[in-house]
Design a protein that fits this description.
Molybdenum Cofactor Biosythetic Enzyme, Chain A; four-stranded mixed sheet; single chain
Length: about 110
């Protein structure tokens, strides 16, 4: 499964016009949660602040279980790569509080590189 996740992300990152790739699921601590491990080789520049802020915001909603999340983001092939939990509530939280407010800015910065 990690190889399939990596292949899918690589394919998305190679597509013309793609500025960001957002994946959901597989960011927890269970043995099946392999998304961050699978995508680590693709990330040229980690953006640790994303995961830190996501866990801080999640703490307000789910309490101490927030530290179990390995949600994160980084730059891969000059594009934003985001890994979110599979929970619809977590995706909504990340979208509303982190991605929507900053996505255009990040994409603009990366386009200048």
């Amino acid at each position: 499964e990690p190889a399939a996740i990596r292949r899918a992300a690589r394919a998305a990152l190679r597509r013309r016009g793609v500025q960001a790739v957002i994946l959901t699921g597989g960011t927890g601590v269970a043995p099946r949660d392999v998304t961050p491990d699978a995508l680590a080789p693709l990330i040229e520049r980690p953006l640790p602040g994303f995961g830190e802020l996501f866990r801080a915001l999640s703490y307000r909603e789910v309490g101490s279980a927030a530290w179990l999340s390995r949600a994160g983001a980084g730059v891969a092939r000059g594009r934003l790569l985001v890994m979110l939990p599979g929970s619809p509530a977590a995706v909504k939280l990340a979208a509303q509080r982190l991605l929507v407010p900053e996505l255009a800015h990040v994409v603009t910065l990366l386009a200048r590189a």
